[in-house]
Amino acid sequence: xxxxxxxxxxxxxxxxxxxxxxxxxxxxxxxxxxxxxxxxxxxxxxxxxxxxxxxxxxxxxxxxxxxxxxxxxxxxxxxxxxxxxxxxxxxxxxxxxxxxxxxxxxxxxxxxxxxxxxxxxxxxxxxxxxxxxxxxxxxxxxxxxxxxxxxxxxxxxxxxxxxxxxxxxxxxxxxxxxxxxx
Amino acid sequence: xxxxxxxxxxxxxxxxxxxxxxxxxxxxxxxxxxxxxxxxxxxxxxxxxxxxxxxxxxxxxxxxxxxxxxxxxxxxxxxxxxxxxxxxxxxxxxxxxxxxxxxxxxxxxxxxxxxxxxxxxxxxxxxxxxxxxxxxxxxxxxxxxxxxxxxxxxxxxxxxxxxxxxxxxxxxxxxxxxxxxxxxxxxxxxxxxxxxxxxxxxxxxxxxxxxxxxxxxxxxxxxxxxxxxxxxxxxxxxxxxxxxxxxxxxxxxxxxxxxxxxxxxxxxxxxxxxxxxxxxxxxxxxxxxxxxxxxxxxxxxxxxxxxxxxxxxxxxxxxxxxxxxxxxxxxxxxxxxxxxxxxxxxxxxxxxxxxxxxxxxxxxxxxxxxxxxxxxxxxxxxxxxxxxxxxxxxxxxxxxxxxxxxxxxxxxxxxxxxxxxxxxxxxxxxxxxxxxxxxxxxxxxxxxxxxxxxxxxxxxxxxxxxxxxxxxxxxxxxxxxxxxxxxxxxxxxxxxxxxxxxxxxxxxxxxxxxxxxxxxxxxxxxxxxxxxxxxxxxxxxxxxxxxxxxxxxxxxxxxxxxxxxxxxxxxxxxxxxxxxxxxxxxxxxxxxxxxxxxxxxxxxxxxxxxxxxxxxxxxxxxxxxxxxxxxxxxxxxxxxxxxxxxxxxxxxxxxxxxxxxxxxxxxxxxxxxxxxxxxxxx
Amino acid sequence: xxxxxxxxxxxxxxxxxxxxxxxxxxxxxxxxxxxxxxxxxxxxxxxxxxxxxxxxxxxxxxxxxxxxxxxxxxxxxxxxxxxxxxxxxxxxxxxxxxxxxxxxxxxxxxxxxxxxxxxxxxxxxxxxxxxxxxxxxxxxxxxxxxxxxxxxxxxxxxxxxxxxxxxxxxxxxxxxxxxxxxxxxxxxxxxxxxxxxxxxxxxxxxxxxxxxxxxxxxxxxxxxxxxxxxxxxxxxxxxxxxxxxxxxxxxxxxxxxxxxxxxxxxxxxxxxxxxxxxxxxxxxxxxxxxxxxxxxxxxxxxxxxxxxxxxxxxxxxxxxxxxxxxxxxxxxxxxxxxxxxxxxxxxxxxxxxxxxxxxxxxxxxxxxxxxxxxxxxxxxxxxxxxxxxxxxxxxxxxxxxxxxxxxxxxxxxxxxxxxxxxxxxxxx
Lengths: 182, 682, 428
Ligand SMILES: Cc1cc2nc3c(=O)[nH]c(=O)nc-3n(C[C@H](O)[C@H](O)[C@H](O)COP(=O)(O)O)c2cc1C
Ligand code: SF4
Ligand code: FES
Prior knowledge:
The complex is a heterotrimer of chains A (about 180), B (about 675) and C (about 425). With about 180 residues, chain A is an alpha+beta fold. Chain A has helices at about 5-20, 25-35, 40-50, 55-65, 85-90, 90-105, 145-155, and strands at about 75-80, 115-120, 135, 140, 160, 170. Chain A folds into two domains: about 5-65, Arc Repressor Mutant, subunit A (Orthogonal Bundle), CATH 1.10.10; about 75-160, 3-Layer(aba) Sandwich (Glutaredoxin). A four-stranded mixed beta sheet of chain A has the order 2-1-3-4, covered by helices on one side. Chain B has four domains: about 5-95, Roll (Ubiquitin-like (UB roll)); about 110-210, Alpha-Beta Plaits, CATH 3.30.70; about 285-350 and about 515-680, Rossmann fold (3-Layer(aba) Sandwich), CATH 3.40.50; about 360-510, 3-Layer(aba) Sandwich (Dimethylsulfoxide Reductase, domain 2). In chain B, strands 15-14-25-24-23-16-17 form a seven-stranded mixed beta sheet. A five-stranded mixed beta sheet of chain B has the order 2-1-5-3-4, covered by helices on one side. Chain C has about 425 residues and is α/β, with parallel strands linked by helices. Chain C has three domains: about 15-225, Rossmann fold; about 235-320, Ubiquitin-like (UB roll) (Roll), CATH 3.10.20.600; about 325-415, de novo design (two linked rop proteins) (Up-down Bundle), CATH 1.20.1440. Helix content of chain C is about 45%, strand content about 10%. The complex binds flavin mononucleotide (FMN), iron/sulfur cluster (SF4) and FE2/S2 (inorganic) cluster. The site of iron/sulfur cluster has 14 residues of chain B, from α4.
């Protein structure tokens, strides 16, 4: 029983074509699968294995190594707040506490409504915009309590929509939420 | 000649072949360097860092001996203060999270972590943080349990399943300090080779569920032997306790045969030796029951009945059927006994391929026999053809050799079979044929090879794979399910012969039992050779047979028919030598207690015609004896007594009678066995 | 201001091909492919003295020259994993001027006869993947990538490969394993990647910033490049400055410029009210230095920081102010390495969490006097014993922070707690 859409299959096929060996498409394929299913379910890993001609155990062995693949269900919005030194110096610890209290969950947990998951993560290579987090793997930088409030509010109001690939779309009308600085 | 280089380790200087890994070089010189992740058969990964040594002139500090090839003039210290400090450090790390429960660990007493941390480690741990905890033990599969707290993450088990057995694997999960070994989504680890990971595990993390806590390693002694379960002839160490109990089988590396692996069927089938159900004394039938009697009484009874039958109906109404699981010595004395003592030519071994061979069939067998290849020649083969053969089923460890031949030596595997087999996935080319139609397929191959008509796919395989040698052919001698057995054998023989005219060819048959080839070489066949069948003669509808000696063959089970039982019951004399009261033994007039492979000295001939020794490792139960001894003793009750006291004497007669064995002297058979000089290629 | 890599960052739409070309873009590639042999490209890079900007500063031209002749295919792998805490320079190079990287990659691929180059970006760089893919598409359409470039026999493909969260994949051989679809485990060496790299073929691995320099060197020559920087460290370097400064960000400096200029003039100095307590010059793997006057004058160069007992590395400057707790800072560093240890080798897998747990205990007020020698001894047992440099990296700041801030450790131990933070805030 397929859990991945035809579009996902096509997308994985495009990756396969780029490499000298099929197996190289494993990381991209897992990204595609996770984007569709939300996390790496058993069925998703099995399907990726079939597409790439791998044993299913080869897939989990790889998937379990990388932190961006979720091995458990996560919320619609995954908040990954950097806790590494530069962010920590600029208040990341307090920011994590703030988000944690606001959402009523500890890092690693998901809100009861399935809307938010909070993680503490290591350096995101945005230290000059500390404190920083990624939401569904999009950057939100120079975090303040107000920006976090706005983000959470916007999400709750369904003003943020999740797309398929590549994840989150930010409405331009939200000046506070800088997806990234160009 | 290999290039030699000179190295100096801890002040000793000697020469080793260029390219040898430093660890192996030191090992061969008796210099002990601790290892966890390295394993001779798995190669270096350099992960555990316990084998650090100092090499002069290396600026980077200590280096791993397991992954460093020797270089000429290399000067190494395995004992310097830097090395000692490094090793202490590694053991400090290893023990930080390792439970200190050696007294209850299955590996306690034979654990390198325990030994080596004693020898190199810091003694006490400075680690005061809470240790990592895991649920323990985890059932990894039907045969294996895993204790993650004990695991040192050498990933030997992982590498074995990924690189050697290539079956659904044990894998690494997660990363860093959270890394564990496990399986995909906790699926059971099911493998025909699972026992090997227990042996590979350097600590007590992976254990056999069958053997967990059954023994303390220090109670055991290991004795060399050979697996009695199939004709591949894997070498064993038999672990025994208190000199009389067989506790487990371990592998004993024979690079020419098993390459240090065992299959689970061989490894775990040892309990029969110590079974309480063994026949321990001669038994005579009294009505519906058996009574135990002294040897003397049993022999007198047999000799008396035998004399009557021979006198009344002639010696050819006596047949003998022996199992190919017996040693060469048993089989030889058996044949002598039948021929010289009884005077009958009606001897046979069972099971064996049931062929009705006319002249050309016998020629085919001779051809195939003369092309008999060594197992290790698979490593040199350009192409390996599995022709109607499934090694995984019949001689499982051959599967691992074939995988190695493909992976390490670039052999091309061609699978020609009517079904999917485990090795299909490894095949570079495949041909299939309708069930049973092996003969047709062999004919097509032959036809294509010799320029005749053949289907296109057959032609392609022949053109691509059979035009360049060396070619190794593996066929299944039993020909189970093949409709035209004779025709198939003749066609395979002709194919091999025709191929042999073009390229270098070797043939490996899959045989019935541990000593099937020995039984053939010794000619344990009836008058009429392959075409005759002593079993047919015995069980046939108008059988004239009145007496039978059956050694270890279970006819009543393997030829299941009411007639079988009736015929055996009707005999005037049925003597069965057995370990157990089998279906056949229950029908006997006399059951004689025989010794198992672990209780006697003797030889097996494996499918590459390697002569290997089994030994008397434990005493026989009760008064049981080796089959050959029983027959020699019985012969003393006739007027034509046999004169053998030792298996060596039997072997000397075998050498005289069987030319192919003439080069092999009993005392010089090495621990890893030997193939006859005439077969050894340069 | 002498700028090479950032010369055009402020040109509007420089990320678009036509604008890039208008500003002289792809002329280096044209020159290399139509006027130079691969060996000549390697030679000019060698002569320029360009050294790897990924951290190890290995001479780039020499690395290319290790590729054996006639073993095809060869590959070029671009290290855009950028996971060193404090580093965010490659991100900006790719984000703002992607074609500059692609041009450098294409020229370098030509130099080592690679027809395929992979740009390995860290998993979190989802938006960079989109930027690079757009630029790659433009370059194919414009005839700067693909087959028979500029009418020559040369073909070059660039593939963007995104990781999935693992610092170790910045280590070059782990990066190749990850590229091939495996766990990111560093490989046993030898064989070195130049002999047996991606897919078992000869492979060159270079950092983004390294390769971004190449088109400029080809266009302007080795002598021109050497006019920047110092004798031993020619060229410019992009320095990332983070922490409580007025203008955190990336600054391209002439190598040899004193650190003071970077901190005070470019980054605008520390924010009001804070003083410099210490700084890390080369990302979390480089030993911290106390904020002394002498350390303000260190020339920004590999040799400058080596002489000061630290490392220039990826030039990622983390500013630690006087109101920050050194033990907390060390804890964050130690947690990072424990989290990122791949788990392949024992000293790193077991040693890095041990370090982190011990530092955490001290920060939480449960430290013991013997913990300081213990920490140093654990470092001693990791350093030079681990499979790859990650283990070594994990030790450098422990040793440095104990060396320079012994008193602060003692204070934590004696007062059974942190003078700056409550224990609860140190959770793992
Ligand atoms: C643990 C570890 C992490 C590394 N991370 C990076 C990285 O994120 N980016 C990078 O360019 N080099 C990184 N390196 C250095 C690379 O291994 C390699 O030296 C570099 O990519 C070579 O390119 P260069 O010569 O152009 O600097 C890392 C090395 C190690 C040991
Ligand atoms: S279970 Fe045993 S063999 Fe497997 S990694 Fe752990 S210690 Fe090694
Ligand atoms: S430390 Fe937070 S982004 Fe770098």
